[in-house]
Structures are given as C-alpha cells and as structure tokens.
Fold:
Amino acid sequence: MLTLMLFAGQLIAQEDSRKELNELINEWHKAASEANYETYFGILAEDGVFIGTDASENWQNEDFRAFSKPYFDRGKAWSFKTIERNIYVDKSGNLAWFDELLDTRMEICRGSGVLSKENGKWRIKHYVLSITIPNEDVDRVSEMKKEKDSLFIQNKKLR
Structure:
C-alpha cells in the first residue's frame, strides 16, 4: 500500500512539473515573439546551448545572446507557435526533456530541449531547432544543400 501511495505521489508530482514546464516553454517562445530579451535569456541557463537550423549554429549562451540582441532590439525576434509538445520528467524531478512541433516562418520545425532545476527554478540547458523535411522530399533537399555542406565539411576538416 505504501509503495502504491509513493508511486501515485510521484505521478502527481511529475504531472505538476510537466504543467509548469509547458507554461515555461510557452513563456520562452512568447518572450521571443515579443522581443523580451530579459525574459527569454532569463529562462535559458547561464551555460545553456541553442542549436540552430544551420550547421554552423552551435550557440553557447553568451554567443547566442550577442547574435540575438539585434533582433530583440529591433522589436521582433522570432515567433514559434506550438503545434504539439511532449514533456518527460525524470524520477528525481530535477531533469526534464521535451520535443515539440512548431509553426514558424520556416514552416514546420521541430524543437527539442533539456531542462534542469537550478536553485528551485527550471532553466533550459540545451535546445535544438531543426527544419522538418517530408521523407519524399529528402533527396531533393539533400541535392540542394550538397555544395554548401561539402564546403562546410571541408572547412571543419581543416581545423
């Protein structure tokens, strides 16, 4: 009986965390669409990472802040509208990860991220944004990016 009660308590806590995390991720996306720099970067952990859609975009927090600042200063960063989101919380209640489908200016994108609880507050530690490609279009898209990808790979090999 005690085991059942503990299990039920854990499920309730995880559901509460998922609700809180869903609201936080919504707030993060809303902050970008409203160009609210402080809120947006207040949700990203100090050691947070943002992986963008371009192969070169592996942004550590400070570099991502510098890249993003001009967009926020102009009053329009980016606008992601959630189509679907799945949130998972580990048993400790201090680590979570999620995936989401987003309606963006690039059409449907997929986002995925990892969050951790720091000093009692959830922070996004790692976020990956990728453009979805319908399976039947992969060959055509691969051909379109072949030249730039080859140059990118060569550049990386030279380092």
Remarks:
- The chain has a mean pLDDT of 92.
- The domain at 2-157 is CATH 3.10.450.50 (Nuclear Transport Factor 2; Chain: A,).
- The CA atoms of residues 40 and 130 lie 19 Å apart.
